[in-house]
Design a protein that fits this description.
The complex is a heterodimer of chains A (252) and B (177). Chain A is an alpha+beta fold. Chain A has ten helices and seven strands. In chain B, 71% of the residues lie in helices and 0% in strands. Classes of the chains: A alpha+beta (252), B mainly alpha (177).
């Protein structure tokens, strides 16, 4: 093997990540070649220094502060209703509606409280956040053949992306977001000047999510499951048109 | 309550590692601490959806997400922020050979600076592999990229670190490394 080829593979070699024949070939080259062996030794020494001398330790008291945060969360939740129940999810949405807050910022602040179920909370805040900051799209394109491949390699599933421009729902682009504890796809559509975020992730057969349509403080959302995927569309578009959008998307 | 103690039992042992990961993404200690507290709270809220997978990659993915989010929210380029001086390695530790101590100490500072300057896409992969010894597939899970990408980023990251070390060595005229 040429030194250059060996040196290019030293990192996976060090981790034992290469096929066995390649590990062996590089191993025997290293026995004969001092230069490559020294290169590998540099990697080892840098690695050891990183582990032993550069690693950061949490400041004193962090554990107590984390605990205090959890304690507060637990306390607030136990005063509220059992938010795990599905019925409560719908009720919590209604409560949000009643809250009648003026601005989206205030809405976020209010929903970080105890009574919001985690998923609905995450979906709503993800939508509002996407509007507040300049991060609505990470890939901006009206071409589904650009948006779809963009998600490949960033997610372990392929979210369906449709261009429904002829039906009045123009594809605008995509973004990665976070709902619950997982990475999800957010596909962005526009109806006139209304932004629609469609959050998509694979459904969990052991915890199926029922279809849902709810309104809270000017935002409407529709959730459904189809072809093994959960879809959750959120927008300030009216419920009727959002329903049409859902029908189009699930028919496509 | 049982839920909380179970979460603490599973997640709290990783607080140092979580802090280290957060620190090397945001590169300052106050933000790193905020990130970790935020991440633990989010992890706890999502704990219902956690069904006996590996805690560490699951938690680290949340930590990493929170750290990236903080960077984005700040809309700051951290490239101009100086290293936290108080965290410099202790030069005067009681090693028997004075020469070795000196070289080791210089090394650690150089490695530290080189890591801080590494582009973020390589930096977090290097931290997860070299400091936390996570497998390629765990790193892929945390960072949301394919294993092949983890492998090539790690290769590139290690090569860049070594190159930076060589550069510093030439500047200071030492033969270390």
């Amino acid at each position: 093997m040429r030194c250059e080829d060996v040196q290019n593979e030293l990192s996976p070699y060090l981790d034992g990540a290469l096929p066995i024949e390649q590990q062996k070939a590089i191993g025997s080259h290293l026995e004969a070649c001092r230069r490559c062996a020294a290169h590998l030794d540099d990697y080892r020494r840098i690695g050891r220094t990183l582990r032993e001398k550069v690693i950061e330790r949490a400041p004193a008291g962090l554990q107590e502060r984390i605990r205090a945060g959890l304690e507060k969360e637990e306390h607030e939740q136990s005063r509220g209703a059992p938010w795990q129940s599905r019925r409560f999810i719908a009720q919590a949405a209604a409560l949000l509606l009643v809250a009648g807050l003026s601005g989206a910022g205030g809405w976020i602040a209010a929903t970080t409280g105890s009574r919001t179920p985690p998923l609905a909370h995450d979906v709503m805040t993800a939508h509002v956040r996407s509007l507040l900051q300049d991060n609505l799209m990470q890939v901006a394109s009206s071409d589904q053949h650009t948006v779809k491949p963009w998600f490949a390699g960033r997610l372990d599933f392929a979210p369906p992306v449709q261009d429904l421009a002829t039906q009045g729902f123009a594809l605008k682009g995509g973004r990665l977001d976070y709902v619950g504890s997982r990475r999800v796809a957010a596909v962005i559509y526009m109806r006139r000047q209304h932004v629609i975020n469609v959050f998509t992730w694979p459904s969990d057969p052991s915890h199926p999510l029922p279809s849902l349509s709810q309104s809270s403080n000017g935002y409407n959302s529709v959730r459904w499951t189809s072809g093994g995927m959960v879809y959750w569309a959120v927008s300030d578009l009216n419920m009727k048109e959002l329903g049409e959008f859902q029908a189009l998307l699930s028919a496509a | 309550m049982a839920q909380q103690s179970r979460f603490e039992e599973l997640a709290l042992p990783y607080r140092d590692a979580a802090y280290n990961l957060a620190y090397w993404i945001v590169r300052n200690s106050d933000d790193a601490e905020d990130v970790v507290q935020d991440a633990y709270l989010r992890a706890y809220r999502a704990f219902n959806g956690f069904r006996g997978e590996e805690m560490r990659p699951w938690l680290f993915a949340i930590v990493r997400h929170c750290a990236y989010r903080l960077l984005k929210v700040r809309k700051r380029t951290y490239d101009l922020v100086p290293l936290d001086e108080t965290n410099s390695p202790d030069v005067a530790s009681g090693d028997p050979s004075a020469e070795d101590t000196l070289i080791e100490a210089v090394n650690a500072q150089h490695v530290r600076a080189a890591l801080a300057e590494l582009p973020l896409a390589y930096r977090d992969v290097v931290v997860l592999r070299e400091m936390e010894s996570l497998s390629y597939s765990e790193i892929a899970e945390i960072t949301g990229v394919p294993i092949g990408t983890v492998m090539s980023r790690l290769s590139r990251g290690r090569a860049l670190l070594r190159k930076a070390m060589k550069g510093r060595e030439t500047e200071s005229g030492s033969d270390a490394l």
